[in-house]
Amino acid sequence: MIPQTQRFADNERWLGRVMIAPAIVYIVALVGFPFFLALFYSVSNITVASQEMSFLGLDNFRHLLSNRTFLRALRNTFVFAFASQVLVLVLAKILALSLLKDFRGKWVVRLLILLPWVAPISLGSIGWLWILDSVYSIINWSCRALGIFGPMTWPIWLGQPTLAMASIITVHVWRLLPLATVILLGGLTSIPQDIHDAAAVDGAGFWRHNFQITIPLVLPIMLVAMLFGVVFAFTDMIVIFVLTRGGPYDTTQVLASLAFFTGIDGGDLGTGAAIALFLFPVLAASAILLLRLARRTEVT
Amino acid sequence: MATVETRDIKKHFGDVKAVDGVDLSVNEGEFLVFLGPSGCGKTTLLRMIAGLETQTSGDILIGGQVVNDLPPRARKIAMVFQSYALYPHMTVYKNIAFPLKAQGFPGEQIPAKVEWAASTFGIGKLLHRKPRELSGGERQRVALARAVVREPSVFLLDEPLSNLDAKLRTSARDELQQFQRRIGTTTIYVTHDQVEAMGLGDRIAVMSGGKVRQLGSPQEVYNEPADTFVAGFLGSPPMNLFERDDYIAGFRPETFLPVGLHDTSEPLVTLWAKIHRVEHLGADRLLYGTMRDTFPNEKVIINIPFTVEMSITPGETYEFAVKEKDIKFFDQATGLRTEPRRFWEKRS
Fold it and tell me: What is the residue-averaged pLDDT of chain B?
């Protein structure tokens, strides 16, 4: 018997709208609204406690450009983002290539690699906080016990500007590596075995095979992974917040952390919003660029 | 040009014996076909010759030299894959030039070589295109050109025609054979299509269960099958096989004709069969029926050319005949060919 009423699930028009609604609500409430609020704040002199505010135009941005802490954070942001991206890409490629081969205990290695991604970020970062501690650092004690560090060598990982930056990049790489590896692994496994066999028969050695066959074929996926990585590195501050809070002397401050410390902790919402928005045009442009590139290199 | 030889070659994947002791020798300039159903080990055998798979045991010789430990690139072979395996991010030109570059061919000679290979297969105008912009037939030509360009001593072809439509496949088969005859390179060709195998091969190695069941010319494997597998695999429809006591007797559907149609002085064996169904296939008429007396109720298929106009009605029983020499005998237990068991004499 044919049912008399059309079920709701059969009505594609309404079903589609209902299914997409949560995503739209989410984007509007948690991304769109704060974004426009930030746009509005960035051209005002609003503070946390103020009852009234006035329009400043681009004054906030202009002041930032002559602020040494801001310029330092801007530079740090780029160093942080690019150093971590390069490291992540190279290491993820190596890991993904080695995970492509079959070997005993492969699942254990896979699990270990995925673990940093599964563990809560703050928990992992707190673990690192102890590893890099000035007094209890397991690295320092191990190195001393092994005789690598002499009696006068005792690096303060999070207390010396260069070491602090290196530590933060290391932890960030540790965190992003699993995702990048899994994305690349997906890309690598999507290359048909015949292509690899053909290259082997055609006489390609390891480097030619990698650089002329494998990498060009995973390039679209690599670019998407890089896009995520770049945006993540430019906008994330959890590692810095837990490990150094931007210190010592603001030497590990990036734009995201500086915006937080200025706007929320410091109460200067206007300047904080301006800092947060400063890189928006750069990020939007690089996102568009990378997506277009990925599309152009797409192969069937 | 070179000979290819395998000596008791085996490939086991755990308990599965994909290739189980194959001894073969391919002559210089020969076109040898590995024919068998899927899973018979023919592709694995080819991949071991290419060096893409390492054998569990046994030796492979190319040009008289043991190549067991040589990587594919050092074996002077070229391979065409079922999927063609063109590099999707490279133009046709770069695809064809790739093996030359990889083997350190002098750069200034590459364009001329690529032009030559491309013109051999009539794809000179497609050099700037990417594989995705090509039709199936064009892709197949590019794959062949890429294989030919380095002038290998052995060609390995893994079902290169199976992705083409039926019409294109026939013309591609013809071209492939002419081309192989012209350049005279030793060729090993894997297929599950018996028409391709019969049409192309100088010799056919019929494989099943990781073993070569028979190695011989197309006529030999068709007319003188070495065992019941070969008899049942080749021919469409395959050989009729009847079990009786300790032997199996069989004859090809096209050798079993209505008794009056045999125009020969050779001794005939006459048998009765009841026809259940008639299929008109254009050039042939297929009769499906069951045997009487000697092989009671055994199913039989009979193939009569359309030039025979005799009317056949389903449900009727007719007298058919087959030449004595066209009846083949196999051992019941092993399936191997045996001496004729003249069952028709016992009866009379």
Answer: 90
**ipTM for this model:** 0.83
B98 — contact with chain A (CB < 8 Å)?
A: yes
pLDDT in tens, B46-99: 999 999 999 999 999 999 899 999 999 889 899 999 999 999 999 999 999 999
Nearest of A204, B159, B153, B183 to residue B143 by alpha carbon: B159
d(CA A124, CA B50): 49
Residues of chain A with Cβ-Cβ distance to B86 below 8 Å are 198
Give the B window 6-65 contacts with A, CB below 8 Å.
47, 50-52
List pLDDT tens digits, range B146-205. 998 988 999 999 998 888 888 888 888 888 888 888 888 999 999 999 999 998 999 999
Distance of CA A214 to the CA centre of its chain: 25
Q: At A25, which amino acid appears?
A: V
Distances (CA, A) of B202 to B30, B44, B213, B315, B331: 6, 21, 17, 43, 28
**Residue in A195, A205, A297 closest to B85 by CB:** A195
Number of C-alpha atoms within 13 angstroms, CB side, residue B83? Answer: 13
Tokens of A151: 């009696």
Give the residue-averaged pLDDT of B231-249.
89
B146 touches A at CB < 8 Å: yes
Which among A192, A203, A297 has CB closest to B73?
A: A203
Please name the residues in contact with B74: beta carbons below 8 A apart, sequence gap of 6 or more. B51, B67
**Residue the block writes with tokens 């497609």:** B126
Task: Enumerate residues 6+ apart whose C-beta is below 8 A from B71.
Answer: A200, B51
Q: Provide the shortest C-alpha distance from residue A282 to chain B (in Å).
A: 30
C-alpha B294/C-alpha A135 separation (Å) is 99
pLDDT of residue A300: 46
The pLDDT of B108-134, averaged and rounded, is 90
CA–CA separation, B118 and B126 (whole Å): 9
Helices (H) and strands (E) in chain B, counts: 9, 18
